[in-house]
Amino acid sequence: MDGFPILTTMMLVPLAGAILCLFSGGAAARGIALAATLATFALGVLLWMNFEIGGPQWQFTERAELFEGFAYALGIDGISLMLIMLSVFLMPICILASWTSINKRVGEYMAAFLFMEVLMIGVFAAQDLFLFYIFFEAGLIPMYLIIGVWGGDNRIYASYKFFLYTLFGSVLMLIAMFWMVGTAGTSDIPTLMQYNFDGDAQFWLFLAFFASFAVKMPMWPVHTWLPDAHVQAPTAGSVILAGVLLKLGGYGFIRFSLPMFPEASGELAWMIFALSMVAVVYTSLVALVQHDMKKLIAYSSVAHMALVTASLFAFNVQGLEGAMMIMLGHGLVSGALFLCVGVIYDRLHTREIDRYGGLSINMPYYATFFLLFTMASIGLPGTSNFIGEFLALAGIYQTSTWVAFVCTTGIILGAGYMLYLYRRVAFGAQTNEDAAAMPDMDAREWTMMASIAAVVMWMGVYPESFLAPMRADIAALDARLASAAPADDSQLADGPAREAAANAISFEAHEGGDH
Amino acid sequence: MDFAASFALIVPELILAAAGLALLMVAAWGGDKAARFIAIAAVIAFFGAGLMLAPGLHFGTDGPEVIAFGGLMRVDTFALFAKALIYLAAIACLVVAPAFFSGPAAGSERGMRAEYPVLILFAALGMSIMVSAGDFMTLYLGLELNSLASYVLAAILRRDERSAEAGLKYFVLGALASGILLYGMSLLYGFTGGTDFATVRAGLTGELATGAMFGLIFVLAGLAFKIAAVPFHMWTPDVYEGAPTPVTMFFATAPKVAAVALTARVVVEVFGAQVLAWQQIIMFTALASIVFGALGAIGQENLKRLLAYSSINNVGFILLGVAVADQAGISAMLVYLFIYVAMSIGAFTALLMLRDEEGGLFETFADIRGLSVTKPAIAWCLLFTMFSLAGIPPLLGFYGKFVIFQATVDAGLIAFGAIAIAASVIGAFYYIKFVKVMFFDEPADVVKGSSGNAHWVLLILTALIISPLGYLLTPSITDLADKAAAALYLAV
Q1: Burial bucket for residue A184 (CB in 10 Å: 0-12, 13-18, 19+)
Q2: pLDDT tens profile B63-83
C-alpha cells in the first residue's frame, strides 16, 4: 500500500462518477452511480484491511502544496477511518434507495450524491485546517440541491433554512481558524492538535467552533433546521443527513474542540452538559407527540446526538469511545429507520403515522426489519446502539451522576416513542385499506435492509472490530485531556487493575477452539 | 529621467491612445459598417497593450526607474496588475457586444455600433492613467477620461429611454462626485502646497489640520462614488439596470478595478502617514457596503439590478482589504479583485445568453424559472457563479473571502472581521435565491434562443476559473498580488 494515494483515489472515483452522471440520462446514471459507490466501498474495505492497528497515528498520509495558503494534505487515524467506512457503506444503499423513487433529473441527482460522497471522504481525511473547512462547507451545495429539487412540498423553506443556518454557524469558525493559523504558524491539523493555545484565547476559539459544530450536530436550541430538512428531503437525502452529516458535528468536537482547546472544553463542559440534558429530555418528549414518521425519527436523532455531546465532554475513555460508537451505531440505525419510512412512503406517498397500521400482517419481512432497527434505536443488547449507549452512560457517570441520570431518562423515553411508533405502524388493526394492500419488500429493499442489519448485529455482538482501530487515538486524546478534566461527583475508587484486557481470556479460548 | 525613458514606460497607454484615435477616424468615415473591424482591431490593441505589461509583471521592476514624467505617473507592478485586469475585462466586454447590439434588445437601431469599441478604448485608457497616477492632476485626468467615455457608453442606445436615463443619471451624479473630488484635492493643495503624491504626503505628517482633514474626506467621498461604495452607491442600481447589458458588464468590472486600485494607492501613498484618519472611514464604508449591498438585493426582481447590489456587496469585501491598511491587505484585495472580475464576467455573460427565439434578452427572476431544465449548461454555470459570489467553497469566490478575512484577522481586526463575515451570510440569501429559481421552480420555458460561440467560450472559461480548478491558479495570482502590493508600499 506504500505510496499509493488511496484516499485521493477514493475521492476521484465518485468525482468521475459524478461528472459522468451529469452528462448521462436516467438508467445509465443509476448504473454509473451504483458502480462508483460500490467501487469506493471496495476501496474503503481495502483501506480498512491495510490500516495498521497500533501503527503510526496518521496513516495513508498524502501531501501536495497545490494551493496558496493551505495544503492538500490527507491522512486518517482510527476515528476518521471508522467514519469514512460509515460514509462509503451507506452510499451504495442511498443510491439503491433512490433507484425507483427518483424519476426526474436522475443524472443530476446521482451527481449530487456522488459529489457529496467526495466531500464526506474529504472532510474526514483532511489534515489541513482550511482543506477541512472547504470540504465541510462545500457539503451545503449538494445537500441544498437534494432537498430543494427532489424534496417534499415544503422543500424551499427547508432548503433555505438548512443552508442559512449551517452557513451562519460555520463562518465564525473560519475567523477562529485564521486566528489559530496566524498564532500557531501552521494549518496542519496534527500539529495544531498538540499546540497549546493561551487560556483566554481558547475560550473564544472554543465558542467559535462550538457555533459551527452545535448547528451541525445539531444541539438544542439550534436543532430546528433538522426536522424540517429531514421531513422534506428525499429518503436517501435523509439517510445521508442522519447517517453522515450529523456526525460532522461530533467529529468536529473530537478532532478540533477537545484536543485543540482542552482547557476551554473543561471549563465549558457544564454548558454542553446543560444543553445536552435539555435536548435529551425535550426532544424525546417532542418525538412522542409527532404524527409524521420522519419528524419523529429526526427528533430522536437530536436526542441521540445530545447523548454523544454529553459523553464527549465526560473527559474519559469510556465517554469518548461511547460517543464514537453511538455515532457509528446511530448512523446505521437512523439511516435504516429512514429507509424503513422510505419503503412504505414509496408505496403510499404519505408519512402520516395514522395512515398505516397492522403492517406486520401484509408486510411481515418489512415488519421484522423495522422491529430490529426500532430495537437497535432503543439500545437493545446485541445491537450496535447498546454498546455505544452503555459506554457513553458509564463514561458520563464517572464525571457527573446527575447528567448520567437525566441522560438515562432519554433512553427510557426513547423506548417509549420508538415502541409507540412501531405499535401504530406495524401492529393493531388494518384500518386503512390501501395500507393493508401494500406488497412486502422486493429484492432491492431486502438488499438494503439486510446489509445494514448485518452490520448492526456485528457491531452489537463484536464491537471490538470497530473499537480496535480507534483505541490508540482515543487513548491519546484522553491523555491530552487529562489535565483539563472537570471535577467529578461520582467519586469512583479505582480497584486493582486487571492483568489483561477484558476480552483477553475469551479471545484466547476462541483462538484455541478454532485451531 | 529623460522623456524617451518615460515614454517607454507608458507604451501600453500609447498603444491604446493611438488605436483609439485611429479607430475613431475609421468610425467617422466607415460608419457602422466598419463596426466589426473596429471591434476586432480594438481587441487586438488590448492584447498588444496587455503584452507590453508582461515583462514588467514577470520581472517585477520597481523603484525609481518606474517613475515617469518626473513623478506624474508610476508604472509599478501594482499599476501593471490593475491594468492587466482592466484590459482583460475590456476584451470580454468587446467580445459579448456584437450579439447584443444586433439583437432586438438594442431597440430600433440594430447592429454593432462603431463608437462602442472606441469608447471602451478611451475609457480603458483613462483607467490605465488612473491606476498609474502619481499626482492628483494625473489622477483627475485619467478619472475624467474614463468617466466621460462611460457616460456616453451608458446612453449608447440613444432611442432607449432606460439607457438615456441611465446615462443622464450617471453623468449628473458622476459630475457631482468629480466636483467633490476636485474640491478635496484643492483643499489638500492649499494645506500642503503641492499636487504630487509625495509633496502632499510630506505635508500631511504630524497632526492633521482640520482643513486637510476635510480634504481627505472629500477625496475619499469622491472616490467612493466611483467605486459605488455605501453611502455613495445610490446611482448603481439605476445605472446598471438601464445601461445596455454589455456596458453594465463593463461598469461592474474594469472601472471598479481602476477605482479601487486608485483608492488603495491614494490611501497608502498620500494618506499613508495618517492611517487612523482614513482607516475608520474605509472600515465604515466597507461594512456598510456589505450590509446594504446584501439587504438591498433581497427584494429585487430584475437580475441586473440584483447584480448591481451584489457588486456593492463585493466592493465592501474588497474595501475590507484596503481597511486592513497593510501589505497583506492590499495583496488580498488584488486577489479578490481578480476573482471578482471573473465572477462578474461570468454572471453577465450568462445574463446575455438568456435569449428568446428572436434573440431578445430576459432579465427578471420570472424568466429564469426552471432554467436548469430548459438550458442546463447556462443554469449550471450560473449556479457556480452564484455560489462563488456567496463565497461557498469549493468555488473560487471562497478563496477571495479567504484571503481578505485572513488579512483582516492577521492584522488584529478580529471583531471587525467577525461582523463582516456574519453580514456576508445575509448576502448568501439572495445568491441561493438564484439557484432556487433556476433549479427548484417549475420551468417558465421562455429562454429558447441559442447563443453564439463567443458567449459560450467566455462562459465556460469563467466557469472553469471559478470552479475548484481555479485553486490551482492561486499560487501564481498570489505571487503577482504580493509583488504588486510590495511595489505600492515601496513607493512610500
Answers
A1: middle
A2: 778 888 888 998 889 999 999
